[in-house]
Every structure is written in structure tokens, then in C-alpha cells.
Amino acid sequence: MSAIILGWDPARWNQWNYSAVVEQVAVTGLHLEPWTVNRSVAAGTDAWLLLLGAHGPGLIGHGVVLSEQPGPSASQDTTKITVQVAFDALLPLGDQVSADVLHAMIGSVPWGSLEQVTELEPGDGARLRDVWADYGPERGPDPTLPAPGTYPDDAVARLAVNRYERDPVARRACIAHRGTNCAACGFSFEMAYGEVGADFIHVHHEVPASQLGSGYQLDPLTDLVPLCPNCHAMAHHGVSSPRSEAELRQIIANAGYLRGTTVTPEELEAQRVGFEVLGNEKSAQ
Q1: Which residue would you say has higher pLDDT here, 257 or 105?
Q2: Average pLDDT of 85-105?
Q3: pTM (2 d.p.)
Q4: Residue 59: helix, strand or coil by DSSP?
Q5: How many other β-carbons are positioned within 10 Å of the β-carbon of residue 195?
């Protein structure tokens, strides 16, 4: 998966309220921001935010490029491109990953003399993910897992998932691209539970475990799909290689389930009344 570094110097460009954006990402998991760059950047590219200026260099955030379009500047410079970046993890100012850590962990990148947009080598991009996993925002507790001590170990059913399904950065990239509706059955937690269900969904890794060699590079836009917990469980249930999104949809269709449809008691009562009306009309004829 390709990756770039976006240099940000607050003294030269500070059109966003960064503290508010950090809080927004912490609460909702996402912030969309147009970013002017000097080269074409493909959708799906990892975008690492590097703090420059008096307090830099320091790694301070991660996002994913969603789209690109020409963006005319004040000088009508047609070489400028505006990309839409979905920032999914940001550190507060002062908590950035220091230059000492970056130099020690990824010495091949000239951290002190980077351009506005710098493309990373694949190996450097992978190492930067590891650095972010160690020094980035802390992961919160997984709400789908029982609290420690709640149940004895032998009473808890475990779902066999791999680390890519638990990776918060990959998860956010998948959701930014695919949304939060279940890709198999269409279920939406937000539609069912309102605000409390907004942005909640599992992600499923479709690549078989046999293909996860040491050189494997995750592409969250193609390798991960959003699934509700029920469909996620069925993807892993009773098989050594997980079922794909397409297989789950076929299984659901064969079972006669219609995606996104729920018959309410009111609808059933209306149907019963309708049949009564039709029956009375036929008796009168």
C-alpha cells in the first residue's frame, strides 16, 4: 500500500482549529480536510501528518486520501492539486512522536528536510505503521469483548480474528472507504440504534491466512470489508479460511433473507387488516 508524508507547519498554515479537530477525531473517528499538494496522489494512499516548524519534525497524525481534484490557487497554478484527506488518528500538539524516535526507527527518511509531499518507500511505510502503533494514540477497550473477570474463561466463545481486523488505522481506512453498513446483510447500527450506534461496525479481513507471509502488505481498501458482528461471526464460523463478502451475501440470499428489510408488528397488523378487508369485499360480491 502506498504512503506519503504531508508536512504541516502551523506558523505558515493554520486554517483549521487543530485542537477541535483532535477532539472530533477522538469522538467520531474521522475528520475530512482538503489538502493542497504539488503532485497527484491516488485515492487510498496512507497520509502521515508530520509537524514542521519550531516544534518539529514530529509525527502527529494519520489519514487516508479519499479523492483528488484540481484546485486553482491564488496564482492560478494549475500544478496544484487538492486532495480530500480523511484523518482518523491525531495526537495533540506537544504529544507528537519526536524526531529522535523517527530517526532511530526509520533512519532512511530525511526527517529534517522533507518536501511538502514526500512519497515513502513500501518498507518505510510499513515501519512507520509500527512506530505509530507504539507511539500513536492509545487504543480504547473493545466494546464487543466482555470485561475482564465478567465470565469464566471456559464460558466465553472466542472469534478467531487476525491482527489486521483489530488494527485501528486499517479499520478506519476501511470504514472511510466503505462506510459503516454491513457489506453482507446491509445492517446499520446507526439506523437501528440512532446516535449511539453511529460509526460502529466490525471489519473483516478477506485474505486467507495461508497468504499472510512475512512480506504481506495490507490494503485496507480491498482486503477489509465492514461486517456486522453476526455476519463477521458467520464469516469465520466452521471454516479454516474465512468466507468472503460475496460468499456471505450468497448464503444470506439462499436462506431467503432480504437485505435491509425488517417487518414490524405494525406492518403485520396492517397486513392482517388488509386481508380482512379483501375477504369482506369478496364475500359481499
Answers
A1: 105
A2: 88
A3: 0.52
A4: strand
A5: 7
